[in-house]
Amino acid sequence: MRIAIVEDDDAIRVLIKDLLEGEGYVCLAGTSFIGGLELVERQQPDLLILDVILRGGASGWMLLDQLVPNPYTAGIRVIVCTADANVLVNQRAVLSERGIGCLAKPLMCRICSNSSRMV
What we know:
- This protein has helices at 10-22, 33-43, 60-67, 85-97, 105-116, and strands spanning 2-6, 26-30, 47-51, 77-82, 101-104.
- It has 119 residues and is an alpha/beta fold.
- It has a single domain, classed as Response regulator (Rossmann fold).
- The longest helix is centred in the N-terminal third of the chain and has 13 residues, at 10-22.
- The chain starts with a strand and ends with a helix.
- The model has no long low-confidence stretch (mean pLDDT 84).
């Protein structure tokens, strides 16, 4: 399974990548809206772990809005993550309706591997 990680925090991205690669997954990494969009469109991973708040003005929500209508990327499973618990609480119903998983970053290290197995 190939997992794309779009996360602008280097420490978190490397930690997630190392954890998942240790479980045998192939990881691809992006750090921005543009980089993440190009990565997902080009590589078409099985799963996308997406930070919803990216530096530089564009957000993970904007990236999702680009991926969903694209027939080549619409079927990619997504897990969104953020340190802002309010974002997850406020958006949980919409995300659940769209089949998008949610993780709060403080829990990410312990359950990221288990969540990837749900795909």
